[in-house]
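ugh ok fine here u go
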Amino acid sequence: MPLETITEFSPGQEPKLGPRRIYVALHDRKKDEFGEFHWAIVTTTPGGMPTYYHASNTNAADPANGTWSFERRGVGDTWDFRRTRSLLVLYELGTLPRGPGFSKNFAQIDAICRDAPTPSNGRNLTLREDQRFSCQTWALDVVERLFLAGYTTMDAEGVEEFGSEAARAYREELEDAGNSNQNGRFRIVKQKYE
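structure:
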């Protein structure tokens, strides 16, 4: 299933996110034992203001010796997608319905993110034999829960494949053009249904 670019942002622009959206954010990072991207979930209000959810490690320099925990940054907190320098792709997974049901749906998604297993909350995430807990395993677990709850149309396996593909392709495109994503360029993508 091909991806389509909804929009692309460059430094100096004031990007806006779509209202009532669910995204997976993929940030570039040096490839290490925990993967080549930092993964997170982003939701937006009816006005397009983001809430950022991710598994964060207390020891960013040496994650294997740190503690993973859940972190939520809402409107007015420290995460500002317009200023992040490592964001490559926001992969749109779905749109929440308009109207009075939005608050209930948003609260359910917030609870799904908060309740997802992390080593620090004592809930165990089922990992494949070759996996370790990471921001990616956490985010994909949340994606699967959102899929099962009917908030997205693609399961975690598809999001992992297409999200990684989109982030790699955009990073390559920037490098080929002599640009680094570290200067505030990012792209919003979604599935193209034919």
